[in-house]
Amino acid sequence: MAKKNQPANDRLDAFLVEEYEVQGEKRSNWSKIGAAWPHQDGKGYRLVLNAVPVNGVVVLRLPEPKED
Asked: Has residue 19 been placed in a domain?
């Protein structure tokens, strides 16, 4: 359960998003590189990365349930 001023989600997954083009069609490659957890006071996040991107964009998303 979320504490006062803390977001309800327990974590956000961090992805490196690299955009590229194939035969004129724009595509993107998403690689999971870490996760972020909310601070107890709800005023920020702790970001833990397994890789440090040198290009591209880092996107934080709510985790999606795994399919069987």
From this structure: yes
DSSP code for 5 = T
pLDDT digits (tens, 9 = 90+) for 7-61: 456 899 999 999 999 999 999 999 999 999 999 998 999 999 999 888 888 999 9
In angstroms and rounded to an integer, the radius of gyration of the C-alpha atoms of the chain is 15
Q: Give the three-class secondary structure for 16.
A: strand
Question: What's the CA gap between 19 and 1, in Å, rounded?
Answer: 37
| Closest by Cα among 67, 59, 48 to 16 | 59
Task: Give a yes or no: residue 1 inside a domain.
Answer: no
